[in-house]
Amino acid sequence: MNRLTQWVDGAATAPDPDAAVRDVLDPATGGAIGQVELADAQTVDRAVTSAHDAWRQWRTASLATRTRVLFSFRNLLLEHRDEIAGLITAENGKELSDAKAEITRGLDVVELACGIGSLLKGERSLSVSTGVDVSSVHQPLGVVGVISPFNFPAMVPLWFVPIAIACGNAVVLKPSEKVPAASMRMAELWQQAGLPDGALTVVNGEQEAVEALIDHDDVASISFVGSTPVARAVYARAAVRGKRVQALGGAKNHLVVLPDADVDLAADAAVSAAFGAAGQRCMAISVAVAVGEVGDRFVEAVAQRARSLRVGDGRRGNDLGPLITREHRDRVASLVEAGVAAGARAVVDGREVNPDGDPDGFWFGPTVLDHVEPAMSAYAEEIFGPVLCVVRAETAQQALDLVNASPYGNGAAVFTRDGSAAAAFERTVEAGMVGVNVPIPVPVAPYSFGGWKDSLFGDSRAYGAEGVRFFTRSKVVTSRWPTSHDAGLELGFPQAD
Ligand code: NAD
Asked: Which residues, other chains included, contact 126 with Cβ-Cβ below 8 Å and sequence gap of 6+?
């Protein structure tokens, strides 16, 4: 069985007979396809020390050198996209074309980072005072930690690693222990692209490895993506140690369908965004709020489409793959059960699924729960499965109030033909990423990705200008070059003249 170790000093470490290990599962069969070693604090310390040594060199690499490495990595990633997509589908279960699409979205960030020469330009002002100039530059932080979730094994690491590397940092990446292969393969490609040994380290592990990374004195910052309870804990632990931290959490994204919306367009969007990747996307639509008389027509159109989706092995061209683990599948089922018991109507019920795949896979079919109420656990909790909750509202204002009362604020979308209604939604909705007739408004690379409220702890979002700012610290230099000794003693506080 394939055994994944750690990636340190530009190579996979030899198997460690004393290391703790866990099985890596194929969710479409329920069987183990490999094992991954789980780093303890000592292993993390060795990895960080190697990264810190590498950083001393990499921080001085010219922008031209860094750019060449990024371009090479970009080309290698493109060349190996299908192969990496295969690794993602084997461990995560998502449909192959979806796995390719996440790599393509990650490539967008690599391409942004290829322009690091422009992104890192500083500022300079002449004569801010007589004979005095000021400049500001952006320098790397040092060793930066990146911790990623199971649902985007390639894209989430690619939100951070290329920009951090381009800014002159060394990265220690801790991928999800459920999907380690894509990160290990991308580490090989970085090395092939010419990145010096140690400038990217991959540490496989679980909570112990994450905590050791946060606590390590030589780790300057933490970029985390995962569930809200862990994001909150990671933020608190890192902040108390004085680290720079961005911790992106879970979500409950609402799609509001106003009475004038094109019902077919809204139903297509809701079904694609709720059931793509079996609902295991942080930008999945998990709640549709149908306003007024559009409700019944919308639910009917959604149900018709949901029933047509094929559930099965992601390698066989199905629409939805399995859920990540048996426990997660059972949790999704119990939330659906609780919703039905509390009075929601299962218009489409994914508990009775007939998958195109191994009977031991972690299957759950598309589920549409109508007449969901905010007090139900199916509404309040992040289900992270192929379950669309439909809530009925009487007015657009009621729908907006509902969205804004959610503790999460990742994405929100409105479907309407009315420009002023859309503008009002856009201005007042409390979410970091908003779609107007767009169900999954993931920002393109030059903009930054991140939510509000319990969907992001910290003040920096991922990639774009905020990503560059996160991975650099600014230095302001005030200088003068007097032609003679013309200053004299002056003990007063300096003022411009
Ligand atoms: P998770 O929180 O269980 O794990 C995320 C990472 O944290 C993994 O690397 C894991 O090993 C580590 N981890 C788990 N428990 C830990 C603990 N107690 N202490 C320290 N580290 C710990 O999340 P997941 O199940 O892998 O991913 C799904 C979640 O991620 C969903 O809630 C989803 O909404 C969220 N997510 C958010 C975004 C976003 O951009 N906001 C993007 C993708 C996923």
From this structure: 133
